[in-house]
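Example 3.
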Amino acid sequence: MFKRSDDDARAPVEIFVDGVSVRARAGDTVSAALLASGLDARRATAVSGAPRLPYCMMGVCFDCLVTIDGVGNRQGCLVPVSPGMKIEVQKGKREIGR
Amino acid sequence: MRDDYEVAVVGGGLLGSAIAWGLGRLGQRVCVLDEGDVTKRASRANFALVWVQSKGLGLPEYTKWTVRASDTWSTFAGDLREQTGLDVSFQRNGGFHLALGDKELEQREVLLKRLHNQPGSADYGMQILDRAQVARMLPHIGPEVSGGSFCPLDGHVNSLRTFRALHTGLAMFGVDYLPEHPVSSIAYAGGEFRLATAKREIRAAKIVLAAGNANERLAPMVGLEAQMGPTRGQIVVTERTQPFLPHPITTVRQTDEGTVMVGDSKEDLLDDAVLNPSITSVMADRAQRMFPLLGRLNVVRTWSGIRVMPKDGFPIYDHSTTCPGAFVACCHSGVTLASNHAYEIAPMVAAGALEAAKVGAFSARRFHGSAVSTSGYY
């Protein structure tokens, strides 16, 4: 759905999405990297389980909630990627203790 | 002239709605006179427990009244669901009061003994459990939890959905819900009540004062009284998390939709528009010591609310002798007692008299005797 700009010369950053290696770029937010990855990154909402993707990309809508390095309910649009980061698409409510 | 209504219920909070729903269910012609959205809606700030344990010290009849409510709550939830399609998520698999440290557990044991020694109380099965017993039922407790008390009759509910179900049900029963109708004065003449409201005069053959703390002002207009002593409480709410707390605790519960509520402060300041972070931080700290995993959750809301609270903590139900047909009803536990208000109080109002055997002990006349004191346990 999304295509990287040909003029984007930023350095690649390897992250893992549900165990799959993904090539993001330095400066990407987790949400941007997920949208650009081509993977099915739809989370499931906490109560009804409806599918959602990142929407506002500026920290307001909370539709980008994702588990990052074992911590649930992080706002992916506010967290820059870092090398080796482990992302889990969050299905439903955050787990207690994560 | 024909009355507008058989019964006018003054107050559209949880208690007034439950009584009006019960009256509507009996086919009565009813209106609910409510204030507007800018007023303090005390009953909406509740903690949503349907709670039995530790209640009734100082008034044994209150234990029976509470157990009766607990016993009929599932029927109440079922009736609401059948009528409105709304599931209020009533859960009654027992609840805990947790103690941090040995001293708190000893205090709880003393309270339990005093309740047991009180003649005329219903036995509601409250028992003290040690730490190991608690841990078997609540695996996530922290190291400071020394034990607690458990009562199999305790439960909780989605109270906002209950409120919505009641109002949906009121409309389906043909009850007129009239917001922006604050009552300024009530006159009784010729067997009829005339209620002056901000909009127009309402006439009714009977009235039920269900205005919470405002009952203190309204009751004397019809020969009744309601001595109130409201307090403020604050509540902290976390983000939603997977179910981890299988039983409600007096101060911590996980809602059906996953949020965790922390509550139970008791303050004299009656401003519900401000918070006191030094109090909420103590509440959050205690909750986190009970369940250390809570420490990882984000807090998404905090709020304060005013408790409807009769002066001694026990309900007030009364029927006027000088203005027959005028009733007053107010209590702290509007969620727990909602089933009684629908199935017991409403039929009594429809019949025109309170049943002394069931609610005689809750007359406000008790405040006239010197024997009555505030027990602090409700």
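The interface with chain B takes residues 46-47, 71-73, 92-98 of chain A (CB under 8 Å). The first strand of chain A starts at residue 12 and ends at 17.
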